[in-house]
Amino acid sequence: MKLIRTAAALAAVAALLSACGGSSDDVGKEIGVTQPQVHFIHAIPSGPNVDFYDNSKILQPNLAYKAVTNFANIDTGQHNFSYAAVNTTTQLATDTTISNAAKGHEYTVIALPDAGFVPSIAVIDDPFDKGLLSSSARVRAFNASTNAPNLDIYLVAPGTNISTVSPTMAGVAYKNAVPATTQDSIYVSGGTYQLIATLPGSKTPVYKSASFDLVNNADWLVTTLPSGNAATQLVPEKIRVLVAQGGNTQQPALELPDTQ
After folding, report:
1. Are the beta carbons of 187 and 134 closer than 8 angstroms?
2. Of the candidates 50, 34, 30, 31, the residue with the CA atom closest to the CA atom of residue 42
């Protein structure tokens, strides 16, 4: 009987969240009963298409630069993520940090270059600690731009003068996320925003997006990339922004163009 009452309560919460723009999948993540999920981002300018592996098996084949996959369920426990160029089996980079993938968590695996464009990999563990009745949007930033290795990110109302505003996500270093891996995303109200990036401590934008709508219950990973598609095209501090949208199976990736 207790199980029935619990299931009924969860169904009621799911119905409420759905009415507010959420999803039953979010409910499962929030209470830690859904399988861990992972998605993949290819962030190597001019890199070949790659196959992403999970524990030595291809989980996501043939991803091109700037491609972002939807979330896929994975098992709990140890995961070794890696990637190789399509039609090869030589792993270019491997990450073994996920020793115990947890239910309700979201994981992001990013292929990106190290200094000198040596293949590298990064993994973000997002515990998805959103409150059951929250309709706020979740946001995190990741720096995959070798030509802008440290950034402050501002998520502000369009036209905001940032001279007296603190960064929304400060000190986003290359190959790192803010909030950091294993920490929850930040939460903001749905609305119309503009994204601005500066060098740390500076108020001079190196990137400024057009206005965009960030809806309630959105789940965004904002990833900075070099604006050029090859090492020879990279201009210092010239970046583009790619958004990986969780829970959106129609348009998993969104590129915010620079308006400067």
Report:
1. yes
2. 50
- Angstrom CA distances, 60 to 53, 57, 168, stand at 7, 9, 32
CB atoms under 10 Å from CB of 204, counted, come to 10
DSSP β-bridge partners for residue 111: 42, 121
pTM of the model: 0.88
- Per-residue DSSP letter, 179: S
Contact 206, 238 (CB under 8 A): yes
CA–CA separation, 62 and 59 (whole Å): 10
Does 251 or 203 have the greater pLDDT score?
203
Q: Tell me phi and psi for residue 100, to 5 degrees.
A: -155, 80
Q: Tokens 């720096």 map to which residue?
A: 143
Retrieve residue 41's tokens: 């981002």
Q: Could you give the number of structural domains in the chain?
A: 1
80-124 pLDDT, tens per residue? 999 999 999 999 999 999 999 999 999 999 999 987 789 999 999
Confidence tier at 131 by pLDDT (50, 70, 90): confident
β-sheet bridge partners, residue 197: 153, 207
